[in-house]
Design goal:
five-stranded parallel beta sheet, 38% helix, elongated
Length: 400
């Protein structure tokens, strides 16, 4: 015989059982047979003598767990009561129906209408006890599932809020520097693979003639990556605004992140300082994807591969900076590996060659058109396949 140990419904609260029967002696039988469980606070019994009285009890006692109901009763019979209980839509309330031994038609109707189990008169109380314990197991399982579902819904709500917060952290006003709209064009977007992501972009004014631009990709995905992303963005922006030399900015950021890194998380970073008057770009690439430059003459040129270490792994790393020149009409396109490593339904990778091809076709357009065109091409290639990584693209164009 199977063993049932969960005699209470979650958190050791009494199992509330409502007995509905017009035979008065059943009340005495139940309270006598289950007296030990009643004294220990495991069971609590309520009694009604017909369906109408039972509904009154159910209105008063909102947490009745098990209903033990006779089928044949005056005023409202057990089958009608079962119908009313079904209308309450409470899967954690179980009905055990009782009828005469030969009344199989009504018993079958009760089972077809959602009764948990049945017992026949005269009631075998040992058998009834086992049936009640089985019902308690089912109720505990349902309540646990309901609690987990509630927690999941709460988590979904929290993630939705986190998504909004993360999007609010990223700059969203374009053009970001309207006073320099004649000299530069700048646009960016981030599409997380989950509710929240680990990619980020940023830009900020250092002085009248220089702006800082950052694109980065944190290891991992989801909430841990999003938290590390927020910390990384804040540190790089804070250090960058102090106007240290560009390599020193990444060195200081690395030392700070490495000292606080949890679970060996790291971030790849491309940080540049653009000189508005000359078009010169000072930059430090710390293990990030090499950006492209769309030249005004129609060519597409990939910048040199990074020789610097990624950020956040180890304190004391030395970083080196470099320089390049943007001529009038040139566009710098920065991106994370969610672009070139996007996969389609056949697990084919988007790749750099496809990226270079579409960038060549988009050359000469403004930054928003370049970014939107790149994203559209990725989505066309992946053809509805699940996004495997965050996708972030930022473009800066020298207009004058």
């Amino acid at each position: 015989m199977p063993q049932y140990f969960n005699y209470t419904i979650l958190n050791m609260t009494p199992v509330k059982i409502l007995s509905v029967d017009d035979e008065m002696d059943l009340e005495l039988l139940l309270t006598q047979y289950f007296r030990r469980k009643i004294r220990k606070g495991e069971y609590e019994f309520f009694f009604a003598h017909n369906g109408l009285e039972a509904l009154t009890v159910l209105l008063r006692e909102k947490d009745i767990n098990i209903i033990l109901s006779d089928i044949n009763m005056p005023e409202m019979d057990g089958l009608t009561l079962l119908t009313k209980i079904n209308e309450m839509h409470n899967p954690a309330m179980k009905c055990i129906m009782v009828s005469a031994y030969g009344d199989m038609g009504n018993i079958r109707s009760a089972m077809n209408n959602g009764a948990f189990d049945f017992a026949t008169k005269p009631i075998d109380l040992d058998d009834l006890s086992v049936t009640i314990e089985k019902a308690i197991d089912q109720i505990n399982y349902i309540k646990k599932s309901q609690a987990e579902h509630s927690q999941l819904e709460l988590l979904k709500t929290d993630l939705a809020v986190a998504h909004e917060i993360q999007q609010a952290i990223l700059p969203r006003i374009f053009p970001p520097f309207p006073e320099n709209e004649k000299e530069i064009d700048l646009a960016a977007l981030m599409v997380p693979a989950k509710d929240v992501g680990g990619d980020f972009y940023d830009f900020f004014r250092i002085d009248k003639n220089r702006i800082g631009v950052v694109i980065a990709d944190v290891s991992g995905k989801g909430v841990p990556a999003a938290i590390f992303m927020a910390v990384s963005r804040t540190l790089i922006r804070t250090v960058g605004l102090q106007d240290y030399p560009i390599a020193q900015t990444i060195t200081k950021s690395n030392n700070l992140l490495s000292s606080e890194s949890v679970n060996s998380m790291f971030v790849t970073v491309f940080y540049g300082i653009y000189h508005i008057d000359t078009g010169e770009l000072e930059y430090c690439n710390a293990g990030h994807n090499s950006p492209y430059i769309l030249r005004a003459n129609g060519s597409v040129e990939q910048m040199p591969t990074s020789t610097n270490c990624i950020v956040g792994i180890m304190e004391g790393m030395a970083y080196e900076s470099d320089r390049t020149q943007l001529e009038v009409g040139d566009t710098l396109v920065m991106y994370t590996d969610g672009v070139n490593e996007a996969f389609n339904r056949d697990l084919e990778e988007y790749g750099e060659s496809r990226m270079e091809k579409i960038l060549g076709e988009l050359n000469g357009k403004d930054c928003r058109e370049v970014i939107d065109g790149q994203l559209e091409d990725i989505q066309k290639f992946t053809d509805g396949a699940e996004q495997s990584d965050d996708i972030t693209i930022m473009a800066l164009k020298r207009k004058a």
